[in-house]
Design brief:
Length: 247
């Protein structure tokens, strides 16, 4: 089964305890090395120190923290290219902290044979392959312009890259190999945005039923927690419910 250099852009004002637990428990299955770039959101709290210490102590695979280098025209493009400069693996997994896998072993066993046989393995959102889960060979990455910028209003981040990738050869979608959304995997779109709103004392507004379920579960996740994140989860519930102040 293939292993990947895992590239993660991580907003420094949000923690994702379930995702950290996933990496702690399962990264030896699929990860050659993990690269993390902390994106400075200019919002408090800043979890960079807590997360750096936690990964350094508890990650079962090597983690490299990467700073951004070069002119910032698009924050995501700069983040990804800075990590690609450090990555040397034959295969790359672009992913996000809001992508959840039900059963990791059969998931990665299903994906592995298709990476390299097609231009990539992913799922589609509108016209782009979504960077929450995109497996690509380094050979195919190098055949593109490595432009991961948003191109509004035409496309979000990875839209340009997706088009270039699909010109190389067809892409395998997760559903094509029997991996169905809502059964084998789930993408909680808007997760980071909701927490950012809460940190700004604004009401989260995206996919609220799933967000409240995730928020409570993340607080109960059996893994080391930063007290500031625990408080953030309570703040979310105060903003979104009337009952929180009574229980």
């Amino acid at each position: 089964m293939k292993k990947y250099d895992v590239l993660l852009t991580w907003p420094n004002s949000v923690d994702y305890p379930p995702f950290r637990k996933f990496l702690r428990d399962y990264s030896p299955l699929f990860a050659n090395k993990i690269f993390i770039n902390f994106n400075d959101t200019l919002i408090e709290p800043n979890f960079t120190e807590f997360l750096t210490n936690w990964f350094s102590l508890h990650s079962p695979v090597e983690v490299e923290f990467v700073g951004c280098h070069g002119e910032q025209k698009d924050w995501r493009d700069l983040s990804i290219n800075s990590m690609l400069e450090k990555s040397t693996g034959e295969f790359v997994w672009f992913t996000e902290q809001d992508f959840f896998i039900k059963d990791p072993l059969p998931f990665f066993e299903s994906v592995s044979p298709m990476v390299g046989l097609s231009s990539g393995v992913s799922f589609r959102q509108s016209t782009r392959l979504h960077p929450a889960c995109l497996f690509v060979s380094r050979e195919n990455i190098e055949k593109t312009s490595k432009n991961f910028s948003a191109n509004p209003p035409e496309s979000d981040h990875f839209g340009i890259f997706s088009k270039e990738l699909e010109k190389i050869e067809p892409v395998t979608e997760l559903k094509d190999i029997g991996l169905e959304a809502g059964i084998h995997w789930f993408h909680h779109n808007g997760l980071s945005h909701n927490y950012t709103l809460a940190e700004r004392d604004q009401v989260p507004n995206y996919d609220i039923p799933n967000f409240l379920a995730y928020n409570a579960a993340s607080r109960e996740c059996v893994i080391e927690q930063d007290p500031r994140y625990v408080e953030l989860t309570h703040k979310v519930e105060r903003l979104l419910t009337d009952v929180k102040i009574f229980v």
